[in-house]
Design a protein that fits this description.
The protein is built from four helices and no strands. The chain is mostly helical.
């Protein structure tokens, strides 16, 4: 299997998880149940689920009043895009076995 396919599948899965966590946390907030820790939401975004988390924030209208989410999630996404661009144009090549 191609490395790019594996990376794409990973990113799709982790973004679906980020989206689902935002929806699940919103549902739990409405029912006054035990909430998903904010650190867990940020960890999912940092490991590649930032786009799904941002879309989940918008769709479910969740965590949009917290400045560290409204600015933090897009900042994480921009950092991830910058890292991908830097890796893509890097003169160093990495060979996977």
């Amino acid at each position: 299997m191609n490395v790019y396919i594996v990376i794409a599948l990973y990113l799709i899965i982790v973004n679906i998880v980020g989206f689902a966590l935002m929806g699940n946390d919103k549902k739990r907030a409405r029912k006054h149940m035990f909430r998903i820790p904010e650190a867990a939401l940020f960890i999912v975004a940092i490991i590649g689920g930032s786009l799904g988390s941002i879309i989940g924030m918008k769709v479910f209208r969740h965590k949009t009043r917290h400045w560290y989410f409204t600015y933090g999630m897009p900042f994480i996404l921009l950092l991830q895009i910058a890292v991908i661009i830097l890796i893509h144009f890097s003169p160093v090549t990495v060979a996977f076995l």
